[in-house]
Amino acid sequence: MKVHKRPKNSRIRGARTVGWGFRQKHKGHGNKGGFGKAGTGKKADHKKQSTEMSVKGKYFGKQGATSRGTSRDTRKRVNLYDIKQNMFTKAGQKIDLNKYKILGSGEGFKATITARAASALAVEKMEKAGGKIVLPVREKEVKQYVKVEKKEKATEDKKS
């Protein structure tokens, strides 16, 4: 007959598993593979080093609502406000923006802007202020002729 039983805390002192078998089993941290970067394989997603993230500039994986395969609109646009703030210095100045489309946010000013395209509002504001936007001359688009059968004969047959 055993007279004295050691208390549980003294019996488990120094044991990592405390009677629960494998060390991770009773931690309550799910199936994450261990400590630190352990177990970060194919299915567990990779935990990248902070230095590696700073070199690339962003964390890998999906960003935003669209997928990487979606083509993005890369056309260059600039507002009248930005042109006036950053490029306009004197009246009658010529500003070359051949690769840009001019948008109408902001006020017009007295200058000649050469651009790829421009919104109707931007052209109107510039002309109102005494400036102008010069756009490239585009050839007329040739539309293919599509022969459409007329339904006049069918209506004449019904009338007679």
Please provide a written account of the structure.
The chain starts with 7 loop residues before the first helix and ends with a helix. Helix content is 22%, strand content 16%. The chain has a four-stranded parallel sheet. It is α/β, with parallel strands linked by helices. The chain is built from five helices and four strands. The protein is elongated and about 115 Å long.
CATH C-level of the domain at 76-134: Alpha Beta
The CATH topology of the domain at 76-134 turns out to be Ribosomal Protein L15, Chain: K, domain 2
Task: Say how many strands there are.
Answer: 4
Approximate helicity band: 10-25%
Largest sheet: 4 strands, parallel
Label the structural class.
alpha/beta
Topology as a string of helices (H) and strands (E) = HHEHEEHEH
Summarize the structure.
The chain has 160 residues and is of the alpha/beta class. It has helices spanning 8-11, 50-56, 80-86, 120-129, 152-159; strands at 76-79, 93-103, 111-118, 132-134.
How is this fold's topology laid out?
Blueprint: H1 8-11, H2 50-56, E1 76-79, H3 80-86, E2 93-103, E3 111-118, H4 120-129, E4 132-134, H5 152-159
Parallel strand pairs: 1-2, 2-3, 3-4
